[in-house]
């Protein structure tokens, strides 16, 4: 374990130890650890010179870019709070978050600057990844502004439980909430998670997801803290992911199972040289035995699954390499708690711990768990049980060895004729049908049962779906009460800017005129 007490120490340490070693490569501007530290010095000094006080917020509205990490470490050195924004949001959504977080400065990519309200107060810095930035009224070119600033590290960092980051969780209902993350929380996650995967100065990490997601920002920070390098993506396509992975000899690769399947089924991708890859870490869903075997054959690497939330800095449980074996029932689990983290299953109504094997709400506590939602005391209180147990909102159970098996989101639970139905289980069965591209299962009103499952499906290109045949298909795989009683075929499922399916939009037409939207 290191003795770092501030996030600024990360880049100071690596710049001192290996100043000429690459820190960021791939798409965008490449920098060494020494250059990253020096540029973050100047940016930190500029923020202080512009009047930002300790605890003030500074926003980032851009795609993945080296400028993000310059701002990240500048914020650490200046004692301010970074607010990474989802660049896929609408102007209204951006304006709402900026109004909630009240940042005193913003760094944005030029083609996204129009999303920022004209009345934004404080320095507005703009950059481009495609040449000279288009600088609009009220904005300053980042490089020109930076060149005018002092170059000395202001050493105004915060430590311990000091707030460092506000990440807005998308959610599927209402406005997003600002998840607060402390300096101590980040430092703990860097140590705890990095130790699980042999991250070192020679590591090359491929993280093809946006930095405003905790998985991408968190893993990248772990890689940089070890003195390694990250392979950066501005835009992600299967082709450039393959090219950057092979071209930069990646050692650690972050994927989701659907992307893994693309790599092992595409002849060109499957034949590539992956001899450098040591770890493939995935999340978002369990892995099938077929994909696991294929991934091991193609990548020749250790596999691990990670489960977590923004509220837990993305670190809660890990399904390790030893559990990735043919015939293991644990492949359907999310693994066991990371050392230093506690995970339990509570009754969502009473807050009492559930017996082994009984489904309830997954709760957790530990050094990485958020202390509160930004300016949301009531929602903060509702998200914790006594004793500091954070309510994840995920339904699941734990076996006798502590492995956690997720079933669904608590709020997506259906109650039909007194029986609990978990939509994810029904969706998994439907996804096995060869004509189905995507599916969402919701509850719709039933006079007899209160509500029954309704499947909203998207067909694969060139395929057609017969509702009765699909219901019969699921009845071969599930208890009949779990199967959909109706099927609707649409062109695309509604999603929010983070890609989450908006089930409330699918439910709304069915429950119009009803007092409540569940049975």
TrEMBL record:
Gene3D superfamilies attached to this UniProt entry: 3.30.300.30, N-terminal domain of ligase-like
GO molecular function: acid-thiol ligase activity
Domain of life: Bacteria
Keywords attached to this entry: Ligase
AMP-dependent synthetase/ligase domain residues: 12-374
InterPro entries: AMP-bd_C (IPR025110), AMP-bd_C_sf (IPR045851), AMP-binding_CS (IPR020845), AMP-dep_synth/lig_dom (IPR000873), ANL_N_sf (IPR042099), ATP-dep_AMP-bd_enzyme (IPR050237)
Domain AMP-binding enzyme C-terminal: 425-500
PROSITE patterns cross-referenced by the UniProt entry: AMP_BINDING
Family, as annotated: Belongs to the ATP-dependent AMP-binding enzyme family.
Protein name: Acyl-CoA synthetase (AMP-forming)/AMP-acid ligase II
Organism whose genome encodes this protein: Mumia flava
């Amino acid at each position: 374990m290191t003795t770092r007490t501030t996030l600024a120490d990360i880049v100071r340490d690596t710049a001192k130890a290996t100043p000429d070693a690459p820190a960021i490569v791939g798409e965008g501007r490449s920098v060494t650890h020494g250059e990253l530290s020096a540029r973050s010095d100047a940016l930190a000094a500029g923020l202080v010179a512009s009047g930002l006080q300790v605890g003030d917020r500074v926003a980032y509205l851009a795609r993945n870019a080296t400028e993000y990490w310059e701002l990240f470490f500048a914020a650490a050195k200046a004692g301010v709070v970074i607010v990474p924004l989802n660049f896929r949001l609408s102007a209204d959504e951006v304006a709402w978050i900026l109004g909630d977080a009240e940042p005193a400065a913003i760094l944005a990519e030029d083609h996204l600057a129009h999303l920022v309200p004209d009345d934004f107060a404080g320095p507005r810095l703009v950059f481009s990844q495609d040449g000279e930035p288009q600088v609009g009224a009220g904005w300053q070119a980042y490089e020109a502004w930076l060149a005018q600033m002092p170059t000395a590290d202001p050493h105004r960092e915060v430590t311990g439980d000091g707030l460092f980051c506000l990440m807005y969780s998308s959610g599927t209902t209402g406005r997003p909430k600002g998840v607060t993350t402390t300096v101590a929380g980040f430092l703990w996650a860097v140590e705890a998670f990095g130790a699980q995967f042999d991250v070192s100065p020679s590591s090359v990490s491929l993280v093809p997801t946006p930095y405003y997601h905790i998985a991408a920002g968190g893993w990248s920070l772990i890689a940089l803290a070890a003195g390694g390098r990250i392979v950066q993506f501005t835009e992600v396509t299967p082709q450039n992911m393959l090219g950057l992975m092979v071209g930069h000899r990646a050692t650690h690769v972050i994927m989701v199972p659907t992307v893994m399947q693309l790599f092992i089924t595409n002849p060109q991708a499957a034949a590539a040289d992956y001899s450098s890859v040591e770890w493939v870490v995935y999340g978002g869903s369990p892995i099938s035995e077929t994909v696991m075997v294929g991934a091991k054959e193609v990548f020749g690497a250790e596999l691990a699954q990670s489960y977590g939330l923004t509220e837990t800095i993305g670190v809660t449980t890990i399904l390790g390499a030893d559990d990735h074996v043919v015939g293991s029932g644990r492949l359907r689990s999310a693994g066991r708690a990371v050392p230093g983290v506690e995970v339990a299953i509570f009754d969502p109504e009473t807050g009492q711990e559930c017996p082994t094997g009984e489904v309830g709400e997954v709760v957790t506590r530990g050094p990485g768990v958020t202390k509160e939602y930004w300016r949301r005391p009531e929602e903060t209180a509702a998200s914790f049980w006594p004793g500091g147990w954070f309510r994840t909102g995920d339904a699941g159970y734990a076996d006798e060895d502590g492995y956690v098996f997720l079933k669904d989101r608590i709020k997506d639970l259906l109650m039909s004729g007194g029986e609990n139905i978990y939509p994810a289980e029904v969706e998994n069965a439907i996804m096995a049908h060869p004509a189905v591209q995507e599916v969402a299962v919701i509850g719709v009103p039933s006079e007899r049962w209160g509500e029954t499952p309704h499947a909203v499906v998207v067909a694969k290109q060139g395929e057609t779906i017969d509702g009765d045949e699909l219901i019969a298909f699921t009845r071969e795989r599930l208890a009949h009460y779990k199967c959909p009683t109706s099927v609707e075929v649409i062109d695309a499922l509604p999603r929010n800017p983070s890609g989450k399916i908006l089930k409330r939009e699918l439910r709304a037409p069915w429950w119009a005129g009803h007092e409540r939207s569940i049975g």
